[in-house]
Amino acid sequence: MSESPADLHESCDATPDCFVAKSRRDFLRDSFLSVAGAMIAVGASRSTAFAMPLEFTAARSRAGGRRSYGVPAADGAQIDKDNQVILVRWAGAIYAFNLSCPHQNAALRWDDKSGGFSCPKHHSIFKPDGEKVEGRAPRGMDRFAVTKDGSGVSVDIDRLYREDDDAALWEAAVIRV
């Protein structure tokens, strides 16, 4: 003779390591908490770059080759299509990049899978700081000269540094925050 579900619950109450849920609600709650805990554990082991927010922006002001932007409040990337600028705050630094891939000038995109920028044309991959990871690109992403300007960031779109030609200037084109 088999026990009814009610009998199973009553006999289970007597043992502390019972795995039978008392109700559908308890089962769903316990299942949800288990899945949520697993997702948090997996998410905590990933780099924060995977969750980097991306938004579109426009320069607040223009003066010759200089474009002014607000200081990004948190890690993320802002794209100014009109001026071909990617403004990135990542790991305590702010960078300004050319929107074009250094290989054949295709517009770069953020790629959650790689946790960096990628070229859709030939699949070059770059870290959020512009360093080349892999692909046909001959160097890292091209950086614009960038300076802190009062409560904002000033990007000089007339001063573009290539990692292979201007390594020292490329390395210095950063604001530490």
CATH-assigned homologous superfamily of the largest domain: Rieske [2Fe-2S] iron-sulphur domain
Strand order of the largest sheet: 1-4-5-6-13
What structural class do the secondary elements suggest? alpha+beta
Largest sheet, strands/sense/barrel: 5 strands, mixed
- Rg, alpha carbons: 25 Å
Query: Which consecutive residue ranges, at least 5 long each, have pLDDT under 50?
Result: 32-50
Task: Determine the mean pLDDT.
Answer: 81
Question: How many strand units?
Answer: 13
Number of domains: 2
Named CATH topology of the largest domain: Rieske Iron-sulfur Protein
Q: Could you tell me how far the N terminus lies from the C terminus, measured between alpha carbons in angstroms? A: 72 Å
CATH architecture of the largest domain: 3-layer Sandwich
Short account of what is shown:
Helix content is 21%, strand content 33%. The protein has 177 residues and is α+β, with helices and mostly antiparallel strands.
